[in-house]
Amino acid sequence: MERLLPRLKELYPDSEILVVDDGSTDRTVEVAERLGARVVSHPYRKGNGSAVRTGIRMAKRKYLVLMDADGQHRPEEIDSLVQPLTRYDLVVGARIEDKTSPWHRKLANSLYNRFATYLTTIPIQDLTSGFRAIRRK
Known about the structure:
Layout: H1 4-11, E1 18-22, H2 28-34, E2 38-42, H3 48-58, E3 63-66, H4 78-82, E4 90-92, H5 103-120, E5 132-135
Parallel strand pairs: 1-2
Antiparallel strand pairs: 3-5, 4-5
């Protein structure tokens, strides 16, 4: 996060940067506030889904970009994620294959992606990606 937030501010100086702290016990809140982000904190760990819902509710802009703070998503790719929002309400960024994930996680993700593709008839490459762009109505 200490590298991500300054890079986001550099690339998108007029953007709102919101960090949802899901009951962490490290220095997340201190670091995020020091780097100029608005922070919303859960009093205890509620899980990733709850953190995402909180972020969506608390964000104030028409276009939202969700990303993890651990560096797995590149801020330079935000524009290519947001651009299709003129036609779509949701865009999900696909990760390049992670060679460090255990085989059972790769298998599960592959099955999820294929099932989602079958249900929607839209090619789904990375259903569980946390790198998403959303357009509010």
